[in-house]
Records
---
Amino acid sequence: MSYNINEKGYYGEFGGAYIPEMLYPNIEELRLNYLKITEDPSFKKEFDQLLKDYVGRPSPLYYAKRLSDKYNTKIYLKREDLNHTGAHKVNNTIGQILLAQRLGKTRIIAETGAGQHGVATATVCALMGMECIVYMGEIDIARQAPNVARMKMLGAKVVPATSGSKTLKDATNEAMRDWINNPVDTHYIVGSVVGPHPYPDMVARFQAVVSEEIQSQLSEKEGTTKPDYVVACVGGGSNAAGAFYHYLEDTDVKLIAVEAAGKGIHSGESAATSVLGREGIIHGSKTLLMQTDDGQITEPYSISAGLDYPGVGPMHAHLYKSGRAQFMSITDDEAMVAGLELSQLEGIIPAIETSHSLAIFEHKTFNPDDIIVINLSGRGDKDLQNYIDYFKL
Amino acid sequence: MNRINKKLQEDKKLLSIYFSAGFPNLNDTVSIIQALEKSGVDMIEIGLPFSDPLADGPTIQDSSTKALKNGMTSEILFDQLKDIRQTVNIPLIIMGYFNPMLQYGVEAFCAKCQEIGIDGLIIPDLPVDVYHQEYKATFEKYGLINVFLITPQTSEERIRYIDSISEGFIYMVSTASVTGSQSGFGPEQTAYFKRIADMQLKNPQIVGFGISNQETFNQATEYSKGAIIGSAFIKFLASNPVEHINDFTTTIRP
């Protein structure tokens, strides 16, 4: 069984492009060109150069000694938090803006939840001098003011999504509607491994630099390219897709995907899609999603704005269903405690999304000689207010 | 013969009306359909509301959201429509997004449509190829016509492909836009309408998106078989009682 995408755009039974005809020309243009463009040596050269000089790659693979001692195992942190803009998101936006340029597009649109992908998109648009419109749920705009200000400072226009539940899924709907209305000059930079084919594959390929680096860095430190486990949090799933990518077919390496259980899986306020979701279609992709019996998409909840998406990317749906990855769910409280612990043991304040991955040690025991790589997908600056409120700092 | 095909043979420009089932009130569905037929409308698209209607503009989104809040579901809609064929004779089409149908079960959904007397379906996010490979046989088994969309950006080759799979009419989206987002047609649209007419497709075309009054109806149907009105009718329903639907229809086609 393959765990990567097939030639029809499916991971197992998940994926595809369930889109209205109005989007067909845009998606078809991408589908026909994305591999041709991204595999071209001149593209690779420019992409690698920007990742190095602008983003600051390679990001370090750091052996977390005090954390390892505490849990009596060997824990490495892949420091995506040290990237420019503070998270893994920029790997994808650099790739997509270079692609957009080569497709002759002049206008960029994006959706954002917490604002991390919006900031990463606004950043690369400033870098390339391209017009940037970011759709963001009205409710998210209110609760993520610093990121809204960042996007504006970078020259982007932030448009509130006022339909539906006024959060990430509605911002995604609005971005797709914009694309329907502007089919010729606009490229839509999707922020995760979600959406119609080829987006999940394209975004995974841009994020794959993470696992490519893990292989060579681990080889240097441990004499092997293979950790025993790779761990990453999953909302839509782009940082997990990047961390897993080069290990997908190597079943010696166990994969752990960590979802947000919110206030508890069965509390009614959760984002644990693998447990609560059923097969269906969201944003043009057949995957697992949280929905009513009648097929209406429901609103998830997590303290972490980056994890409260009602679906997961089709790659992750396949990894779950096939059993290739183990899925774990971590509550708000467990994540917050793990975030504080990393801060005080290692001097690294993680994003709350990432804190979910760090909380697995309370649920799962590892052997002393196991090598565990955790994708430290983002830094906690953006979440400071949440940490302050939670711990009454 | 399917009521849609029969209607398409009539020597007139067809007026089709879309509304969101469950809006403005949960139980308005049947009275809206009856009033539309009585007012002389040729065909009706019953919108099955969805939480995330990608191809729709604010008017239809809002009416869908309201309908869902009112409690509309596939099950309730089917229940409301169970006796509809005792009073209504014009073609009825259900228009909705694919996920609710998938959850109901595509075959069960089609069977229920046939039982009630639904003539066709419009599912904007069910791609032609997937339909062709996985669902065509099921739709045909239950006598349902599936209607596909084309847009000004659709290539000639793809239009020919869609025409070859279609067995009723082609839903011609007037502009690159979501529903309800423009006013009036320019020379660009007219050229597009004519270009499609000149292709001599086997299926007649019915134009949708951007039709809101007599003028746009006439422009849209100059080269096509008919036109569909959605957002403008929903706006009317938001501020007028069902008993006044005749007033709306007569402004479009006096």
---
Amino acid sequence: MNADVRPVLKLRDDTVGVLAAMRGVFARDLKVAFRQRQDLLNPLLFFVMVVTLFPLGVSPEVSFLREAGAGILWVAALLSVLLSLDHLFRHDFDDGTLEQLVLQPQPLFLLVLAKTMAHWVLTGLPLVILTPVLGVMVHLDGNSIGVLCLTLLIGTPVLSLIGSIGAALTLGLRSAGVLLSLLIIPLYIPVLIFGTGTVAAAAEGAQVGAYVALMGAFLVLALTLAPFASAAALRISLSNG
Amino acid sequence: MWQFFHKLGSPKWFFGIATRLMPWLLAGGVLLLMAGIVWGLAFAPKDYLQGNSYRIIFIHVPTAFIAQSIYIMMAVAAVVTLVWRMKLADVFVKAVAPVGLVLTFLALFTGAVWGKPTWGTWWIWDARLTSMLILLFLYGGVIALDRAINDEKSAARAVAILVLVGVVNIPIIKYSVEWWNTLHQPATFKLTEKPSMPADMWVPLLLSVLGLYLLFGWLACLRMQTEILFREQRTRWVKDYVMAGRG
């Protein structure tokens, strides 16, 4: 990969503040991603295709789709985030950028947080934006679609954050992809349960405030703890090579 | 106290202690477990609602109980691995993870066997069952990650992080019954309250839980010894030990 596709990080300086460094990492990840647009598109295509499989494979009945639609969309979103996680650190690991990141004077966990946020903006957010269209296709009503988007908006950052731990742990291993899924899917289950539970409660006309608050709690927990874990895991994976 | 702590870090010292401890653990474990199970299966009174089918509790509860506590022990060992880099802690994690996997599977299996006559189904997507299943996946992930990393030190620390991340799941298992409150009956033992069943039922249950704990201790010592011998195979004392055993 040549240098002009993947811009070099220019942070090697004590005078760069923590926030500026985070902004730098974030902006660079976005820039790299937009120079390789296909990588951006793939998880979205995957998302749409997985959702398509359900009406074809199970039943195109409106009653079934309305019942299962939110769950299908959530599972599809979860899987496509999972699929995209491999990219989170892989390229930076291969070309040595990650080592430079570890050597920065700024705390690694904040830089990892910036990378994870960039990952969410590039995969989670587009999924949320795409959800209303697919929601209409699986015959969800307007209210459910709104709640579904809200849960995905809170839930997908959690997926990215937890996923970053798995991606960091499996970095540089053989068959990292399958292993990553094995490690991460169990940790995704509570998020999935509450995400779909919220939509189900909304469909029954119940108040969803408590559910949304719980998902927010998941987000805060992941936001505060996950970057530490992935930073520690990154250091291990790098010392491994 | 610190000296004890340092000694505990020495695989050789642990090896000796374990050798002396193991016969007691094995004997105590077998005795208690036999007593608990025979008492439970043959002499404890019938349940007024579930009849004889409830008797599987004397196997189901100990396996489920210990399957969960092994994970907590692993989490403690993981902290020790990460903070003090103590060799023995990661030997422990590596040695007991498969035991935890098997016990979790047994808990799920006996639960299914119990569920069939009482709930009329082998499996139900109840919160408690689902979180036990997640525990099974977590054990599987820990073992898979450990196998995937060749370097011993990296593997130990990576696994430690994974275990700590997974331990967030344990409170969810513990309180899921109260949160979702579905089919599964609430926990059998609580530290703070008197058991709600007659003494003829809970005493054998307690005996079999303790028995299985001791047996687990024995198995953990055995597996840790094996792992220690493997890791320290180049050291003097292991060579001496092996040669002495042969001679």
---
Amino acid sequence: MSLDEFFVTGDPLILGSQIAIGLTMVGLVALITYLKRWKWLWREWFTTVDHKKIGIMYILAGVLMFFRGGVDGLLMKAQTSRPELGFLDAQHYDEIFTTHGVIMILFMAMPLLIGIMNVVVPLQIGARDVAFPKLNALSFWLFFVGAMLFNISFVIGGSPDAGWTSYFPLAGKEFTPGVGNNYYAIALQIAGIGTLATGINFVVTIIKMRAPGMSWMKMPIFTWTSFVTSILIVAAFPIFTVALAFMSLDRLFGTHFFTVAAGGDPMLWLNLFWLWGHPEVYIVVLPAFGMFSEVIATFSRKNLFGYKSMVYAVAGIAFLSMLVWVHHFYTMGNSAAVNSIFSLTTIMIAIPTGVKIFNWLFTMRKGRIEFSNAMLWSLAFIPCFTIGGVTGVMLAMAAADYQYHNTMFLVAHFHYVLIPGVVFAVFAGLYYWWPKMFGFKLNEKIGKWHFWLFVIGFNMTFMPMFFVGLDGMSRRMYTYSESTGWAPWLGFSAVGSVVMAAGFAALCYNIYWSFRYASRDVGSDPWNGRTLEWATASPAPHYNFAVVPEVDRIDDFWYKKKEGKTGIKKSDLKPVHMPSNSWTPIFLGVAFGIVGFFLVFEWFTLAVISSILIVIGLVANSFDYDDGYHIPVDELEEEEREWRGELK
Amino acid sequence: MTQANTPLEYRSHQSQMNILGFWIFLGAEIVLFSTLFASYFVLEHNTAGGPAGQDIFILKDVLIETFLLLTSSFTAGLAIHFMRNNAKNDMIVWTIVTLLLGAGFLYMEINEFIHYVHEGATIQTSGFTAAFFTLLGTHGAHVTFGIIWISLLLFQIAKRGITEKTSSKFFIASLYWHFLDVVWIFIFTFVYLKGMVG
């Protein structure tokens, strides 16, 4: 392979990116060296097993990926803003909608949600960390390495270009030669292992580490939704593991899982992909529902309406989500009976979802609503998401779906579900839990700019897509003729995407501004919260709770505040056991990245040799008998005194 | 929660969580193998002119493999029994027997694969062979991983003795080993026996 096959060449946009990436890397290394921060980075971040720091790294990576996926989106909108534009050619457009989809779902939505879960869930259940802190770090590094491997594809070797669903036969070697789709198969596999480990970790954490007295029905709702999501991860991700393994074997070793000529079956890929892919949608949306529930209850100053029905609804949605996958390919030759069954199960999902919508509305009823930024996002979510839900029921009807299957109507629908459902939730969650992570609030005024620009831009971008979709514009079209009459709609939509991007820029500015100037004096409980994460200092100390709280009822902390019982006694302080930092997670992450890279390029000898690194990491981990360390009582007392005052 | 008669591997809270976590991991493994089985059933008759199962399977060899692996599950159980009686040497002996039986199984399976390749059934031949070799290969790779893993644990047991930590690690590895046996029973029934009847 010659050098100009290795690097992607011949496109000024990509050349610019290559130069920018190179300069940024050099700049970062120089800056860290100049500030003498390498040791600090290694000690405090790269080797950390603290769930809060891991959560923050997830969030940081998620925001970065949001930027990358967002730029992809803007490029697509620019290309379709006018008829017959030559800004991107068909090939480049294919690559961009593929990476946009993969990055937004797997490398933006997932890490942002898992990041917030990481920070919040242990605090909400009164635990000192997750069940397996080192595994948690490994999860992060596998995700991060997977994301980076996927991201370099557009400058090294070439991007995948068969869509985020990568249907066979298109995604096979015959129709998609080159290494692009190898990146898809390998990078997602690596990140997927990390996600599966996260799922297992949180299931055990929530089952075994809840504070004394916190029975299942006294658990905060966000913890419930994280629990159900974790179970869905364990149930669904192995299916994707197998599907990607088949894809890798077909592409790298010439097997025939999906090629018709030698007895393979491309429909097998579709079924496996959506058997994972549909639950995946709920994996990202359920924790988001939990965040809205927490925010709405807190800022309505009321307990969550219908808590139990919320729990049952979440469990019901999770169960049904495993039984609807065929609705993604009604038009691909199933019998009428099969289509009808999947149509019914799909429509049934609207029932528990409707229960949740009404519960949120009733939580607000007669509440003293405070229009903080977190609350604004929750309020905007309800109508926008309902539009997504209603159009979803339209798509669920198999007979009608034949009319708008794979049109822009579908694209508009899932953006109306995923952006309000997930992105708005992440924004609400970030504004809400930011002080718990960093000890200062994000600015509310800049936050309003962020909110209005993003929400208006979002509706401007995606509402027109419903109409061009109903008018017959199929998805993934890189251009169209003047005579279609779509130009005004798509032009308006492109303007909307710029407004939305301005909203995102406002968020970034807000983070910068608040980091520099916001007041550090926010106290432990800035929003008058209801759950245990507000019972400890902001930012939360590395041991979380000096004394593990006891819980008598749901929203226990809210009542304890009223009863004046939130203090701790000096005599209750005991040394706290903490896990030690570890180098194995980041080492294993990098090792997987190297092996993955060689596999992408089908350099098998190098891949086999470098997999020795993985073995070394695993063996070192097996022989590691580090028992962690204890924080002495004096140190605890000193840290607690800082924000509680003198302990009794 | 933890009393004197609680088995050693369950004494500490962390060990309890490790064991529960591993059970949940086995749940994920069940999903993984179920997917492999389902895919095999979809593709099993798509031989594309290549050999079908009944043309190449040698039931006698498969039966020997089955006995080797099933016996190794029994001896792994014996090792756990001696671990609980704090009989370190017996435990090590039975673990080594387990590993040898596992290695015997692997040897047979590799020979079986070589035989198939000579018969003209490689992983690239057809949809059937792709699904067959991937299902069997995934199981075989698990056995290989298990042999290496348990060997490493043997060093740790020899060096550190039977402690709360080593016993829980070993118990988890034994769960894994039994799980592979269960998967094999399904492979034996639904791949080989079903394949022989056609």
